[in-house]
Predict the structure.
Amino acid sequence: MKANVIKKNLNIKVCCFLFCAMGTMCVGNSQTKSKLYLEYIDAYASLAQEQQKQYKIPSSITLAQGILESGAGTSWLATTAKNHFGIKCHKWDGQTVTHTDDEKDECFRKYFSVTGSYKDHSLFLTSNSRYAPLFQLKITDYKGWAKGLKNAGYATSSTYATRLIDVIELYELYKYDVEESSSAKKKEETKFADKETGIYPIVIINKLECVLAHQGDKLTTIANAVDVDVKDLAKYNEVSTSYVPQKNEPIFLEKKRRTTNSASKAHIVRQGESMHSISQMYGIRIKSLCKLNEVQENYTPKLNEVLRLRM
């Protein structure tokens, strides 16, 4: 009889303990939201939505990955290299940093801006065949995306999918997967770009980041404004450090490509254009442009001449 009473009391205590534990878990799930996370979401939600519009990656997934991978923008990679998604160098022509992650002194991509990191994250997912099945899912299926990213090996953590889903649901990131009106989105996108680069909003040409020169700018002026070494800027744009760009000329913040993604296969030369100015329009290297057209690198194109941009 005494044993039964002890057992009964023990069961009551266990039940009370479990109830309290469950109550704590419930409180944990409804905990006060992180101010840091909220600030990150407020800063980059419109950028994530722009990526969704262009690349069909759910905004909720992009934001949740950015939060987890960058510590909501506070990690060493995020603050030093503006790398918010932990993308390693692989085949990368841009600037890099060395950082110890899974292994010692690994090579990671460095970006001029967070916009570049978000853009590259989209390109990384869309150009890698192992993520192809994800693009068959509905844009609102964030759970399918989270599990698919984990299964495809984006992260090594066994709880990666669960963590993504938890962040999405706690912060209601799924609401960003619903399209905004194009006018509202454009306004927000411009505001974001201006905030990040001051007087030089970021422009994307040929999947590359660039800014547009102002009247009277020198290359050194732009280099100082965007915090890029003038020697690097000169190298990326195939000019000297004393170069004075034309108004609205694209100045690339990373090395130009060997090919262009332009919808046009050819360019008709206009008055005053050079192989360099044409290469700047399309984000293609001068050497590659000349090779396509079987001319020397010092070639001067003729007015109304048709130049090939791609094969």
